[in-house]
Write a structure and sequence with these properties.
Elements lengths: L29 H52 L11 E2 L6 E3 L2 E3 L6 E3 L14 E5 L16 E12 L2 E9 L2 E4 L4
Antiparallel strand pairs: 1-5, 2-3, 2-4, 5-6, 6-7, 7-8
């Protein structure tokens, strides 16, 4: 009895050919692979640029939030003491570096009650950028207040890389009346 279907015949000297193992039409050409790699590289570059921009905006938003938190703690201190914290023998403090907290005695490296801010934040990119606090008597010519009376005003110098909210990038000065452009006087 004969089998139905095709019979495969092998000729001497010829190998059996299978369309799955033949090299014709299989895989990608070198040009196709290079184009795909170039596109992936371009997309990775755009993603890295966008990520850097997002990180910068995030750091600036954190800076503004941290400075506003410090301002709130300073106002609480002022309400209790009718003066902002003085600087002792220093002309200024680098917040989060020279001092760690704000308590009833002012800025210090360790806190006791009452605590106005338990951990004074430092700049996200410290020591490249810093928050610098100074207190003054409020006279026409700003005078450090530790030897000349009560500290009725303060300044906090800080820097924004690109801007946050309605604040542009660059040097900023925080005072009891708000945040303004430029280096503090």
């Amino acid at each position: 009895m004969k089998k139905k279907g095709f019979t495969q015949h092998l000729l001497l000297g010829h190998k059996q050919s299978n369309h799955l193992t033949s090299k014709k039409g299989a895989g990608f050409t070198l040009i196709e692979l290079l184009v795909v790699i170039a596109i992936i590289g371009l997309l990775a570059t755009f993603a890295a640029i966008a990520l850097d921009s997002a990180r910068e905006k995030s750091r600036d938003a954190k800076r503004v939030a941290d400075v506003k938190n410090i301002q709130t703690a300073l106002e609480l201190f002022f309400n209790s003491n009718t003066s902002y914290p003085d600087l002792g023998a220093s002309s200024s403090y680098t917040l989060g570096v020279d001092v760690d907290c704000l308590d009833g005695g002012g800025f210090d490296t360790s806190c006791s009650d009452p605590i106005y801010i338990g951990l004074v934040p430092d700049d996200p990119q410290s020591p490249t950028y810093d928050f610098v606090y100074a207190a003054e008597t409020g006279d026409e010519v700003p005078i450090a207040c530790e030897d000349f009376g009560e500290c009725v005003t303060y300044t906090i110098d800080f820097y924004l890389e690109g801007g946050a909210g309605d604040l542009s990038g660059g040097d900023k000065c925080a005072t009891p009346s708000g945040i303004s452009d430029g280096v503090c006087p």
